[in-house]
Amino acid sequence: MKKKMTIDGLARMTAEQFAKVDERFDKVDERFDVMDARFDKMDGTLKTILDVVLEIPSKKAFSRLETKVESIDARLTSVERKVK
Predict the structure, then answer these.
(1) Cα 29 to Cα 25: distance, rounded to the nearest angstrom
(2) E strand or H helix at 44, and its extent?
């Protein structure tokens, strides 16, 4: 014999299922919070790495510095010859 479904029974079943779904979403929210924290940490790490990388002189900068050193060395040699 089938049990007759009442509005109250249907409402109770629906409420129970919504409660279960709500519990699952709470777990998903917790996982998203953990992921947010991890992404924030990664953002900080990447910013630190970028700051370090941006302070490394480029090949062009080394080339310009090398040219300046050669120029200063040539001028110093010239001054030394004049002083002798």
Answers:
(1) 6
(2) helix 7-55
3-class DSSP state for residue 22? helix
For residue 82 the two structure tokens come to 């004049």
In sequence order, the 6+-apart residues with CB closer than 8 A to the CB of 57 are: 65
Which residues lie below 8 Å from residue 65, measured CB to CB, with a gap of 6+? 57
Q: What pLDDT shows up at residue 10?
A: 92
pLDDT value of residue 2 = 75
Those residues of the chain that have pLDDT short of 50 are none
What are the C-alpha distances in Å from 40 to residues 35, 43, 62, 67, 82? 9, 5, 35, 43, 63
Give the three-class secondary structure for 43. helix
Q: What pTM does this model have? A: 0.49
